[in-house]
Write a structure and sequence with these properties.
With 258 residues, this protein is α+β, with helices and mostly antiparallel strands. It is built from nine helices and seven strands. It has two domains: 2-51; 93-257, Ribosomal Protein L30, Chain: A (2-Layer Sandwich). The strands form two sheets. A five-stranded mixed beta sheet has the order 6-2-1-3-7. A two-stranded antiparallel ribbon has the order 4-5. The longest helix has 62 residues, at 20-81.
């Protein structure tokens, strides 16, 4: 459109007779071109501001994580120096992975697994570590591995295996998170504009955790490298097994599945 507009302008400037309809078209195209260029410039400036804000927030998150870690270390040392016991803070976040199929499964556990979006083998989801959720997980404990993911595991899961659930006309569609635009388009109204915001909201179980968790498609993981020990037995049983709550040891297990 810009090239046609320039050719028309050159003809008009050279004194070549131009029909009235062409003049109107050139005027209209010129106005459209100016509006388009102005919109592009405004969009470029807006993206630059958002990018700067994302960098600042990412730095503030890093400082927050370091501060919390140093505070825990300080409290542990203080308790040890005074001869007391330090009670570790309760975990807010759980990661649950399904490790068994559907054969010979009762209707209630099957329904709970479906509610948690664990409808296939080796699927995983983040959930809040609350009393109602713990009671629900007791019914499906023999079919899942769960535990408390750390920051590194949370970040790697979202960045390596994270897919967005984008709403379309016929339902929802699974799309890779290739840039921050897809996050901003779906979660921008909740203050989540980029990958660092999404990771922070999930890891800290923020006020918009539900929206952030629903935005992420259930993680499709691989069979663990090195295989399972024994799916029929629990992790804390004397003989050793796989299912159950591994607490912090879930991080090592999940990395074997990525």
């Amino acid at each position: 459109m810009a090239e046609r507009y320039l050719v028309g302008e050159i003809k008009a400037a050279a004194g070549v007779p131009v029909p009235e309809s062409l003049k109107k078209k050139l005027t209209r195209n010129g106005a459209h071109l100016k509006a388009k260029l102005a919109a592009q410039e405004a969009n470029k400036k807006a993206k630059k501001v958002i990018k700067s804000q994302l960098k600042k927030r990412a730095l503030s998150y890093t400082k927050e994580y370091k501060k919390d870690e140093q505070q825990l270390i300080s409290l542990r040392r203080q308790a040890k120096a005074t001869g007391n016991f330090f009670r570790e803070p309760e975990a807010k976040l759980l990661f649950v992975v399904r490790i068994t199929g559907i054969n010979k499964m009762a209707p209630k556990p099957r329904k709970i697994l479906k509610l948690l979006r664990l409808d296939q083998l080796h699927k995983g989801v983040f959930v809040k570590s609350t009393k109602p959720m713990i009671n629900m997980l007791k019914y499906i404990q023999p079919y899942v591995v769960m535990g408390y993911p750390n920051l590194k595991t949370t970040r790697e899961l979202i960045m390596k295996r994270g897919y967005a659930k984008v709403q379309v006309q016929n339902g929802s569609q699974r799309k890779p998170i290739q840039n921050n635009d897809i996050i901003s388009a779906n979660l921008g109204k909740y203050g989540i504009e980029g990958m660092d915001d999404l990771i922070h909201e999930i890891y800290t179980v923020g006020p918009n955790f539900k929206q952030a968790q629903n935005f992420l498609w259930a993680f499709k993981l691989s069979s663990p490298n090195g295989g399972y020990v024994l799916k029929k037995h629990g992790f804390h049983e004397p003989k050793g097994g796989d299912w159950g709550n591994r607490e912090e040891l879930i991080n090592k297990f999940v990395r074997r599945m990525m």
